[in-house]
Amino acid sequence: MREEELRQIQTERLFAVLNRVYKEVPFYRILFDKHSLNPEEFEKPEDLRSYPFTTRDDLRKNYPYNMFAVPLREVVRILPSAGTTGAPIVVGYTRNDIYTLAELNARTLKNLDITKEDFVMITFHRGLFASAFGIQSGAELIGASVIPTNLEDPVKTLRILLDYRVTTLICSPSFAIWLAETLLNSELNPNTFMLRRVILCGEPFSEAQREFIENTLKVKVYNVYAVTEVFGPSVASECKARQGLHFQEDHFYVEILNPDTLGPVKPGEIGEIVVTTLTKEALPLIRYRTGDLTSILPKPCPCGSPFLQTERILGRLDDLVLFRGVKFHPGQVELLIEQITKTKVLWQVLLWREEGVEKILLQIAPSESIFSDSFSEQERMRKEIEEKLYLEFGIPIPVKFVEASSLVKEGEAFKKIVDKR
């Protein structure tokens, strides 16, 4: 698909969806009238910038069905989603929506060379059911043999992977890490598995975590981005080059916006993902603020795709840290540490006040593989991390190497940010 062709498709579908929601969804009709917007006057994608945003609060306030653009008799699947705050959100699908969802996921899986010869195991906990059924429908459309499970037992999962000759595992990053750790402590040989690829969905993950899964399970790891409210999985995904997420822009008009100014960001700058659905029938959304953060990659992908390409999901807007007027996200810190240490480490940012002055400290609990016991090597790496942090954020952030036992936990997990201000 050429860029000119994509732009024409987006323009036509944006015009259609804006006019449809104005006619069929009272929420949007009132909102557009309030801003003196006439969808009939829409001419080009840039015109969308004058339209207001849709938020999770809007979906909650219109619970359960007031955001639907079709009669309930045309909605053949209804999914309640807790969202990130626990408040109920209801997502509906028409028969055409379900077919479109299958097509989107089939496209993603085909781009990763999955065919009818593959055995695909899909295992998610119930909270990620929307991702599970979307990816399953895509795999079945391709003709692959699908093994859907809701297992949360890595020992049983390893046995199924081996006995069923599974070639592709689709799961959450946390489950894949658990699976890899379980394999390390077992007598199973990863070379006896038929598994070739693991597709991760449902949570952000780091490059160090990807490397750990790949090295342990002897696979290639790929990333799929899902937004349940927008459509589900395969809003964006990696191709075989694995250099970033490709958004399926013939079905979603995507903006990466500065959370403060709500204007477009430049390549390399972190912004919030805002999505307008172009083909969703039951629940079309206009400029939906996902709360997810990423940045546009400046160079085109080797695969030649015309679609927007971004970094992996770096985290969520509500996780942003404000220190002395500078905003940063935990994902930025983690990415920088990984680039220098070349491995997965535990870390924690401490924030506190001392005589009214804000203080900050980055504590890192390194693994033995990072460096030798020599003090000079530790000092070299500490200084390098501090220099890179200053270049990235423009503020001095002291770094201290500590034992893992000194880091603050929340339940069983280590907190990334400990804010005592």
In short:
It is built from ten helices and 22 strands.
What brief labels describe this structure?
GMP Synthetase, Chain A, domain 3, Rossmann fold, alpha/beta, 4-stranded antiparallel β-sheet, 8-stranded mixed β-sheet, 421 residues, 2 domains, single chain
Q: What this model shows, in words?
A:
- The protein is an alpha/beta fold.
- Helix content is 31%, strand content 26%.
- It has helices spanning 3-24, 26-34, 56-61, 95-111, 129-142, 154-163, 173-184, 207-217, 330-341, 375-393, and strands at residues 75-81, 89-94, 119-123, 145-149, 168-171, 197-201, 220-227, 232-237, 245-247, 252-257, 270-277, 288-295, 309-310, 315-316, 321-323, 326-328, 346-354, 357-365, 399-401, 409-410, 413-414, 417-419.
- An 8-stranded mixed sheet has the order 4-3-5-6-7-8-9-13. It has a 4-stranded antiparallel sheet with strand order 10-11-12-14.
- The N and C termini lie far apart (52 Å).
- The model has no long low-confidence stretch (mean pLDDT 91).
CATH class of the largest domain: Alpha Beta
Please state the overall shape, judged from the principal axes of the Cα atoms: globular
| Number of extended strands | 22
Determine the mean pLDDT.
Answer: 91
**Given the helix and strand composition, which structural class is it?**
alpha/beta
Topology:
Blueprint: H1 3-24, H2 26-34, H3 56-61, E1 75-81, E2 89-94, H4 95-111, E3 119-123, H5 129-142, E4 145-149, H6 154-163, E5 168-171, H7 173-184, E6 197-201, H8 207-217, E7 220-227, E8 232-237, E9 245-247, E10 252-257, E11 270-277, E12 288-295, E13 309-310, E14 315-316, E15 321-323, E16 326-328, H9 330-341, E17 346-354, E18 357-365, H10 375-393, E19 399-401, E20 409-410, E21 413-414, E22 417-419
Parallel strand pairs: 3-4, 3-5, 5-6, 6-7, 17-22, 18-19
Antiparallel strand pairs: 1-2, 7-8, 8-9, 9-13, 10-11, 11-12, 12-14, 15-16, 17-18, 20-21
Helix pairs in contact: 1-2, 4-5, 6-7, 7-8, 9-10
